[in-house]
Amino acid sequence: MTESNCQKLREINAVILHSAGQDGSGSVCIPPAAQSDEQVISLWLHGRSIHTQRAYSGDVQRFMSFMDKRLHQITLADLQEFADILVSLQPSSQHRILAAIKSLLTFSHKIGYLPFDVGKPLKVPKFRDGLAERILSEAEVQRIIGMESAPRDHLLLRVLYAGGIRVSEVCRLIWKDLQPREDGGQMTIYGKGNKTNVILLPNPLWNDLVIYRGNAPDTSPLFKSRKGGPLHPAQVWRIVRKSAKRAGISKPVSPHFFRHAHASHALERGASISLVARTLSHSSIQTTGRYLHAKPSDCSSRYLQV
């Protein structure tokens, strides 16, 4: 092989190595996914719901203001000092903030921005789980729904309960998201984390929805405001609060109470935990398992004489 041919071969190899991201030593040079803290945070927040982004952004801003340094300069001692200043907050707030910071640091390490996960050893304080207090009984749910006479609001409450969906999800529903089935219907939910989920609707609810729709086009919101647009989450909150108050429920009922009720009542009636997890689009079955702990079907105390 001539020297000129050898030189051409070396040039071709150099181009191949460069395009493959190698430095010539055989190791792959993976370019960092982000060049700054701001870019990392933006990537970390991407795809989350607006409400989650708002909460996490506030938590991270609080953390970065306290640190007054870049992410790659933060040590475990810094994190522990930050955790110490949060003790004046409610345990649930401490848990949320520290869990968010740990998630950000883990993400930064996974994408190669940080050499190691500095937040991994940090202990997140546990807090009292008040889930049981936010679970309505079946009688309470039926009383809230039954005493709501406005057609739109009555159906809204039934859809929240039957679907176990979030308030943001119910506000985004349009008629095109609903399709008939032989024994009722189904609705397609575009939910948290950009997940798509299909939920079956029982025949009585489906029939009432069909009657309520009338001639509304596919692109029309399922539940419209007085101005004709989709209901705002704050409006749904007010509807739920008024309906609960009318039914004589003293608990601070929110739309999410119907999601809790759906999970708890379905499990009590024999639905498998995996089915409930799939219906509610839980990322982990452990999340669904909280409802079993909040309202257990059995307990060893029943086997004692007291």
How would you sum up this structure, described in words?
This protein has two domains: 37-110, DNA polymerase, domain 1, CATH 1.10.150; 132-297, hpI Integrase, Chain A (Orthogonal Bundle). Helices cover 52% and strands 6% of the residues. The protein has 13 helices and three strands. Strands 1-2-3 form a three-stranded antiparallel β-sheet. Strand 2 and strand 3 (196-202) form a beta hairpin. Helix 12 (273-279) crosses helix 13. The model is unreliable at 12-30 (pLDDT under 50).
Which terms summarize this structure?
single chain; 306 residues; mainly alpha; DNA polymerase, domain 1; hpI Integrase, Chain A; 3-stranded antiparallel beta sheet; 13 helices; 3 strands; 6% strand; globular
Structure at a glance:
52% of the residues lie in helices and 6% in strands.
